[in-house]
Specification:
Helix content: 55-70%
Structural class: mainly alpha
Order of helices and strands: HHHH
Strand content: under 5%
Largest sheet: none
């Protein structure tokens, strides 16, 4: 993989990182605890609010995981290890990186 390709992946990773952080900030209210207020919320409404909160928390866990993968990929770019499987040290297929530049495993190792 040449330097131009690596810089393109770095740009994609940084853009994704910025978008995920913005989503985290924007969704903070939806992850907040649901307040018990019997005067304004009925039982069904409160259950619905709790489901929405749970979904927002699940999305946040996914975002946090992806941010960690992006951070690791950016570190691999700095060390010159980007594009190589962290398990077997073989080159990761460029097509796989195009789809998900934060992956750290080749398709063979990811399947095991």
């Amino acid at each position: 993989m040449n330097n131009k390709q690596i810089e393109q992946f770095k740009s994609i990773l940084l853009k994704s990182q910025k978008e995920l952080v913005a989503l985290q900030d924007a969704s903070a209210d939806s992850r907040a605890p649901v307040q018990l207020d019997q005067t304004s919320l009925g039982r069904v409404s409160r259950i619905d609010a709790m489901q929405q909160q749970a979904m927002a928390q699940a999305q946040e866990r996914q975002r946090t995981g992806e941010l960690a993968r992006i951070t690791q990929a950016l570190k691999r770019i700095q060390t010159g290890d980007f594009g190589f499987c962290t398990a077997c040290d073989e080159e990761i297929a460029p097509g796989r990186l195009q789809i998900a530049p934060s992956v750290s495993l080749c398709i063979k190792c990811a399947g095991t």
